[in-house]
Amino acid sequence: MQKINNIIFILFISSGFLFGGEKSEVSDAIKLHWKYQNKKDWKKFVTTMHSHGVMNGDSNGSFWYKREPTIEAITRRYGAPKNKFDFTPKYIEVDILEEGKVAVAYYYLVGSLIMNGVSKNDYRTRVSQIFVKEGSSWKVKSGHFSPLHSGSGVPN
User: Fold this and answer.
1) Domain spans of the chain?
2) What's the whole-model pTM score?
């Protein structure tokens, strides 16, 4: 009986590490996603996106749209030479919906931006994103962004 209890205890502890590890992996993926956008490293930025694209709803109140995971598609919207981004994800919470397959993350994104001539120094928004595991990496599959009270979203 003691052996069975020990095995159950070990399985319980290891499952906590597994989920904790996956939560940490998703959190790291979020941080990399925004780091690459801040640096305008579009080649690395697209590697954080799901290979079939990302369905988003932006903080400017736009309709849902699909973003293709290509440098051309990303730079069409964000790549103007004078555009600048300084986003920091805060208070990241991750729920693993299906081990090794699907996760959802909730966090706040704060910072500033200059985009298409519009400057925002009070960018504050709530973010929820769906992540899907592709190979050994977590990739953004969908996201929803809504401005926080007294914060601003991205320009239209």
Assistant:
1) 2-147
2) 0.82
